[in-house]
Structures are given as C-alpha cells and as structure tokens.
C-alpha cells in the first residue's frame, strides 16, 4: 500500500518519496489511521520496522492541517526517546519528512550545552524530540512550556523504563496538557510498560506489527556454540571466509569492544568500536564510515547501539550474549529492517546457554545451531588433553602463550590459519 492512499499532503508525499520509500511498512499501515483520528495508541514495534515514520508522518499532517502561531517556549508535539542517538535519528527523520512544510523541529539531549537548545526553544517549536533528562532540565530552567502539548509520544518506552527514566517521565507528564493525545511505542511489553500504559493512555488502540516479543520475520537467526576464548578467532574466520560486510558486533563491555576492534584491525579487518566513553562526534564519524563501507565491522556495547540507524545492515553478531533476553530482540532489530533481509548470529559459550534458553522462550522459537568444524565446544576436553600430550610429549610444539595455544589446538585440524607471532601476523601451515 502506498502513502498516497492515506491522503497525506503532497508536500509530505514528496518528502517521503525523496527518502526512497515506496510502500508502507506493516506498522505504518496499522498506526497511521488511528493516530490521524486522534486516538491514543500502544504499539509493539521494534527499531527497524519503520515505526518513526509511523508516528511522525501523521503528526506532521496534523501540523499541516492546523497551522498555529507559537508563543516562546511552546511545543505542539513532544517525542521522548531514551538516548541522544535515537533523539538525533528521530529528529533527522522528522526534518527530512517535513522538508516542504513550515514546521520547526528541535532536538534536546545531554552532553552538549543547554544554551543553544534554549535559544532554539525561544521561538517555540512544532516538534520537539528529547531525552527525558535534558527535557526536564529545560523545564526546570523555564525554557520550555509543555502546557499546550497536543501529542506526546514515548518512543522505545521499555528502554526508557529500563534506563530508570520513570520519575523524569512522571514529572514531564505532569507538566503537559491533560487533553493531549498519547502514543506509546515499545519493542517489548514488560510489566512496567503495561503499568505506565494503563496510567497514561485513554482507551488506546493496541497494535502489533509482529507478534509481541517476536523478532522481525526478515531476520534469519543462527547460533554458533563456541568457547568464550575462541570467539575472536571464529569471528575473524567467518567475516573473512564468508566475506561479510557491514557487521554490527555486540560486546559485553567497553574494554572488550576496544580490544576486539584492535584485534580485528590487526587481522586486517577494518573495524571501529563505539561505546559511551567515545565522544559523540567520534561515534557519529565511525557510524558514517561504517555506512559508507570504509569500515567493515562496528563493535558496540548495548548502550551505544541503542538508536543507531544503519540502513541496509546485513549482519548482527552477538559476540557476547545480552544479559536480558529482551535485549536480544532489540539487538537483532538492527538488521532485516523495513522489509530487507538480515542475519543475526549468536556466539554462545557454555556459560551463555542459559540466556539462550531464555531468549528462545521469549521469542517462541528454537534457534538453528551451526557447529563450525574446529570450534566445537564438546571437543574441548579432548582437544585440551591432546594439547597437553603434545606439549609434554616427544613432539612438543613451540607454544607457550595463549595465542600460540590456540594455534596449537588448530594444528590438530591441520588447517592454514593466521597466527600472531611476536605481534606480527604470519601465514603458517600447521601440522
Ligand atoms: P525505524 O524503525 O523508524 O528506525 O526505521 C527503520 C528504517 O526504515 C529507517 O532507515 C527508515 O528510513 C526506513 N523506512 C521507514 N519507512 C520506510 C518505508 N515505508 N519504506 C522503506 N524504508 C522505510
């Protein structure tokens, strides 16, 4: 179904087609009519489903239909999102869709001075996209007036609750006009999300583009059982052998992200790490290089990846499994976006089998396991015994470091592998 069939203004249709959109995504088909009718909405939609356009487009149509002169600090539409990346992304989309309209879009997030944002607010804004914390600062400083908010959107509501924003959200809600329309978008419906929805939504239209808590159908998901300490090697091998490009890799910590990026670079795979300790500008630069294909792999922590909008992302690798099963759904939502197909690969160590079981329960599906020859977890004890025998027997290999130990293990499969020797890489035929 095309956007024209929902009778949007030609200015909006033109902007949307310049974004390259032709048909509506399922969430857009479902959400646009009730939002345009002014109904409250509770929508289950992951990142990557086209949810941003699903709420921004009908709200821009509302502004187009009812233009109004704005007092200083007054906001007509307020969108709350959990991270500055997501705020920037939603605001960028809103600016692109409103290119031919008379609508001011202002984004508010932390990490930068408030003065520039306050100056923009002084003229009033049709649409404000904000993180709850920074919005509250502006509210307390008297820079923003929420008494005339016509529509409030909570984007990634589950994330905002996970990140502890509930008190800020409550304060913001108190400052907004009670007659407003409220829209909640959430990838998962946890108890907290349901409770908040009951408090703030009035007879909402409940929508789900996919089944609740299920992963997008365009993502094929596979699991590689592998020992934790051999994950790096397996990743480099898969990327090289299968010629993967645009791979988003999730690691557990910032340190792991940096280290993995260093090691992959040493392996000749152009990689960057993004995490919360990297400056905002640097993260954006890495993302740009990644989308332009200058780097092949982006290693990210859970927090940094929220809100990253990477079109055409082909591969998501769970190098470390997430702590929460629901985060798996968010992570793999980065691929297979808006009808495109993607692959989600999970490296599961013995210790991570339990979280894998929780994930399979949550998504209601058992994931396909692929045993990579030479990396089988079950063979580990046998391999170690063989290794010990070799190390202390007649044909002792010159292996003493952990890297060399891996090489020695690999030697049992007699394959040609890259090993680090004195910091350099060499191709060796291991026997
Ligand atoms: P979102 O779920 O809002 O993060 O959107 C995911 C991606 O899909 C973004 O890159 C959007 O630009 C893109 N997108 C949104 N709607 C459509 C559409 N109808 N057709 C093609 N791409 C779309």
From TrEMBL:
CDD domains in alphabetical order: DEADc, SF2_C_DEAD
DEAD-box RNA helicase Q domain spans which residues? 1-29
Q: GO CC annotation: what is one?
A: cytosol
An example molecular function term from Gene Ontology annotations:
RNA helicase activity
Task: Check the record and name the InterPro entries matching this protein.
Answer: DEAD/DEAH_box_helicase_dom, DEAD/DEAH_RhlB, DEAD_box_RNA_helicase, Helicase_ATP-bd, Helicase_C-like, P-loop_NTPase, RNA-helicase_DEAD-box_CS, RNA_helicase_DEAD_Q_motif
Q: Write out the biased-composition intervals (Low complexity).
A: 420-431
Against PROSITE patterns, the record matches this protein to: DEAD_ATP_HELICASE (PS00039), HELICASE_ATP_BIND_1 (PS51192), HELICASE_CTER (PS51194), Q_MOTIF (PS51195)
This one is known as Superfamily II DNA/RNA helicase
The lineage, from the top, is: Bacteria, Pseudomonadati, Pseudomonadota, Gammaproteobacteria, Alteromonadales
